Amino acid sequence: MRPHHIAFVLLIDMLWAFNIVAIKESVAAMPPLLAVALRYGVILAVCAVHIRIIPGRMLLVLATGLVTGVLQFGLGAYSYHVTNNLSALAIAGQLGVPLSLLFAILIDGERIAWKRSAGIILAIAGVVLLLVDPRIVDERFGILLTAGASACWAAGNLLFRRLSGIPVLTLYGWQALVSLPLLLLISWFIEPGGMAGLSSVPLSSFVWVVYSAVGASLIGHAGMSWLVQRYPVTVITPLTLPTPLLAVAVVVMVYGTPITPMMLAGGVITLIGVAIITLRTAHKRVDKEA
Prior knowledge:
Elements: H1 3-29, H2 32-47, H3 58-82, H4 86-92, H5 96-108, H6 114-132, H7 140-161, H8 168-190, H9 203-228, H10 233-236, H11 243-255, H12 261-289
């Protein structure tokens, strides 16, 4: 792998890790659903020229936009809104990996060996430890919201598999086009005064929204798709594993939130499970393509 491509992967890891701060700062300054709507406004502005009709698959495209846009990011934004210890969310967010595999087993009939089964059990058990940690009992609602967002992300993965061959920016454009009006409508009803209050929101909060849209979504996810098209997944996937560790380090550095012994144990167990699933799945895909 070329050195500048390795550097690009590590840049994406950092963009995703710092996005936890971007989301928290934006939902602290404005209603969470409105913050997500503004994020999709930026994405739509960038991706509008790439939007086109996909014959025979538009229903699936729109459903994917609803699940991975309104539901996933709506739940995610509210989890950040109600949570103070963001390290717990960084760990709980890893549930998307085992849930993706579980959905693939239940819906697509994928068969897995004992190693990936053990990875699923470990990843889920680690998050359960967070829920029973008495020192972060007040964060349980936020953790559950993040678990819901992770389930939407996992469901979205299955939907994206059925949309192979469609350019990433086209999918992001449709996702934004579906999500923006729905989020604005829901925000209007359940976040009264949110839009009127935007005039008093500091400029820095809007900068964080743009960071999430461009840095985490467009550069991060689109860039990763570009890299996967050029290198085996067994090369790319392991380089993304440091992201949750970086996210926890960033949270501790920026907010000084404590890491409890049970949180540390849960995080280690979850990351071991995620690593097993990620690495074994990557090797399985390469074996199929060989």
